[in-house]
Structure formats: C-alpha cells, structure tokens
Amino acid sequence: MKRLLAAAAAVICLMAVSMTASAAELGEIKAKSAILTTEDGQVLFEQNADEVHPPASVTKIMTMLLTMEAIDSGKASLDDTVTASAHAAEMGGSQIYLKEGEQMTLDDMLKSIAVASANDAAVAVAEHLGGSEDAFVSMMNARAKELGCTGTEFVNPNGLDTDGEETKTTARDLALISAELLRHEKILEYTSIWMDTVRDGSFGLANTNKMLKLYDGMVGLKTGYTSTAGYCISAVAEKQGMRLIAVVLGEPDKDSRNSDITAMLNYGFANYSVAQILEEGQEPGSVPVEMGIQDTVRVQLADDSPLLLEKAAAEGLTREITLADSVQAPVQEGDVLGEVVLKNGDEEITRRQLTAAETIERKGISSIYRDLLGYLLMKQQPY
Q1: Whether the Cβ atoms of residue 136 and residue 127 lie closer than 8 Å to each other
Q2: CA distances from 233 to 31, 204, 262 (A)
Q3: Which of 134-138, 253-257, 317-321 has the lowest average pLDDT?
Q4: Range with the lowest mean pLDDT among 5-14, 217-226, 335-344?
Q5: Beta bridge partners of 222
Q6: Which of 45, 67, 93, 66 has the alpha carbon at shortest distance from 247?
Q7: In angstroms, rounded to a whole number, what is the distance separating the alpha carbons of residues 261 and 280?
Q8: Which of 31, 90, 286, 373 has the most beta carbons within 10 angstroms of its beta carbon?
Q9: Whole-number Å distance between alpha carbons of 177 and 143
Q10: For the residues 49-77, what does the mean pLDDT come to?
Q11: Nearest of 230, 319, 258, 281 to residue 51 by alpha carbon
C-alpha cells in the first residue's frame, strides 16, 4: 500500500511541476504574490506564492473556517445569540456598527462577515467562539499549522492593523485555508450573496466581492484592502465541472485585482479539464473470496476524486485495472484488492487503489460442513 501511495504522490508532484511550468503563457500578473489551484491542491499557476504579505480582510477566511467547523461539530449553532463587547463595537473599517451589548444570531454575524466584511462582527464571533479574541487568534494560528501553512501568523480575526501588528501570510497558505473552508459547502450560501439585510431588514449588506457580478461562475470567497496590504482576494469560481481557487496579494488597485483574477481563472478553465478515474458507467469488477459467506467481493475506488489535467493530456486516456486473483475470508471493507492506472500513451498519469466495497465474513464450521456434505451427495448422484 505504501509503495502505491508513494508512486501516486510522485506522479502528482510531476504533474504539478509541468502544470506550473506551462503557465508562462498566462502573461503579466501585477500582484506581488499570486496562485491558482484546484480545491484539492493541484497548482496550475504561481507567482511568488511563498512571499509573506499582509492579507487585509482575506484574514476572515480563517475566521469563517473556525466558525463553520464549530457549527458542523455541534460546538456552536447558527441560532446562537452573539453579544457584542465594547471591544468589538470599537472596530473601524468595514463594519455593521455594532453597539456594546447588541445581540445578533451567529447566522447574521456570519453573513455580515462573509458579505460586508464586517470587522466588528468578526471580533464578536471570535469572542463568542473562543472566549476571548486572543484565545481565538491562538486557535487560528494552531489551525493554520495543522493545514500545513508555513508563512502565516494571525494577530486578530479581521485583518486590521493593530498597535503596529499585522497579519502576515502567503498566497499559497491562503489557498490551503480557502480549500479547507470549501469543505463546508454551506459557506457558499453566504459568500455568494450579492445583497441582503440584518437587524430585521433595517440594515443593508452589499458584497465587497464585485467579481460575483464581473466573472461568470464566481461563488466567493473574500476580498481585502488596507493601505499597507493593497488590494487582495481569495476568489473561487466553478465552471465545466471544475472549482478553482485564485489568490492575489498586494495588487495596486481594484482594476488590476479584478483583471489578474479574471486572467488566472480564464487560463485555468481554458487549459485544463476534469478526468474521471473510471469511465462513466465503468465497473472495476469483483474478486473471488475463498472460504467466505459470499463467493465474490465487489471492489471500488478508494479515492474517486477526479484529476484536473491539461486538455491535451486528458485526451486519449486509457485505464488499466489490476485485481487480486482471489482473497481469503474474512474480508474487511477497505481492504486493498487492486489498482487502476491512468495512462496517456505510455505515460502514467496516476494510479488509485481499488478496495473492498463490503465486508465478507468467513464461513463458520456448520457452513463448511453443509458445503462438504452437499458436495459428497452430488458426487454420489448416478449419471
């Protein structure tokens, strides 16, 4: 199994190198740092992606991630009542003008963060979930490390410069965090909102991400701006069965931010396509089971997530399926029983494990005796 995983990882690394190398045709990107990835981490383009820069309000993707994780784990609820502290109410920049002691549901607070980039709501939610802003920031930094972020240090939940401190991160780290946030599909119900209200309809929200109207297929995620950070965004778009994440940091103005994101996404959608591991309707087969309560066990892909390939590589793919000749019972669901290899000509693209789709118990003594008795009786039958 380890050899299979190592081979697959090596192939994916080679694919990533060839993908980024071919991205030279994309043209000039004005951002200080940029990256284009799939949601499973394939890098299609990068430019200074590991340089450390302030992300401004793009910081809030981590605030939203911890919020969604708390909700999905049952530690919090969208119906929770969040009370604004004096500290939350004093936030400047983009805000919903919370008053000290004002209460809103976590649902409305999250909406205010995702749509209007509300700095005060971000602090209120951080205090609600973490007990204090400092404790929540520690949670943010711990989660970043868990995700493999190497250039990120959060100082608050909203991205504002405070007391000479500012959040630092990289385009690559933001793509990692964005991909993890996308695992919580409900967040797209918030980040795709164009206009909405809170406070029973008395306060309007307008999305800071104008790319929702400027780019077909845009579904989120988060913009940011400060005078030191410049214009930033982590943008997610869906087309042709693909979901791409484009991140830029340090853009000189809104127009260049929008044009760079458009160019990067257009490049991705124009040059890559989705390749399924098995052809539509293709069954990987089954493996005979010795001494099992069933004669065969069905197999399935351990990982059926599709690959994003350059269109030329995706054409003319062949699939080679190798299965074990047989397996001894008991068989546990998930046992490795073979593999499928995707090739383009003689070049191997990737390989995926085929595993048992069900558990097959070993026959008991009584079953073995009945089988033997049946066999003997059949042998005694006259011809």
Answers
A1: yes
A2: 11, 22, 12
A3: 317-321
A4: 5-14
A5: 234
A6: 45
A7: 33
A8: 31
A9: 9
A10: 96
A11: 230
Residue 152 has pLDDT above 50, yes or no: yes
C-alpha 169: how far from its chain's center?
Answer: 18
Residue 89 CA to residue 102 CA, distance in Å, equals 9
3-state secondary structure of 273: strand
Contact 296, 286 (CB under 8 A): yes
pLDDT digit string, tens, across residues 331-380: 899 999 999 998 888 888 888 999 999 999 887 666 655 655 555 555 55
| Residue carrying the six token digits 């405070």 | 162
Q: Is the peptide bond before 98 cis (omega within 30 degrees of 0)?
A: no
pLDDT of residue 117: 96
d(CA 103, CA 110): 13
Least confident of 229-233, 256-260, 326-330: 326-330
AA letter at 321 = I
Q: Which of 96, 279, 114, 123 is nearest to 198 (CA)?
A: 96
For residues 7 and 82, give the distance between their C-alpha atoms in angstroms, rounded to a whole number: 49
Least confidently predicted of 17-26, 60-69, 82-91, 118-127: 17-26
Which region holds residue 235: left if phi is over 0, alpha if psi is between -120 and 50, else beta?
beta
* The pLDDT value given to residue 4: 35
Return the active site residues: 57, 60, 117
Q: pTM for the whole thing? A: 0.79
Evaluate whether 63 touches 155 at the Cβ level (below 8 Å).
no
Mean pLDDT highest for which of 211-215, 277-281, 284-288? 211-215
Report the mean per-residue pLDDT for the chain: 87
Q: In terms of Cα–Cα distance, which of 235, 255, 238 is closest to 247?
A: 235
60-72 vs 119-130: helix crossing angle, rounded to 10: 40
Q: What is the rounded CA–CA span in Å between residue 249 and residue 257? A: 9
The pairing of strands 218-226 and 230-239 is antiparallel
Q: Among 61, 32, 29, which residue's Cα sits nearest to residue 45? A: 29
CA distance 265 to 113: 25
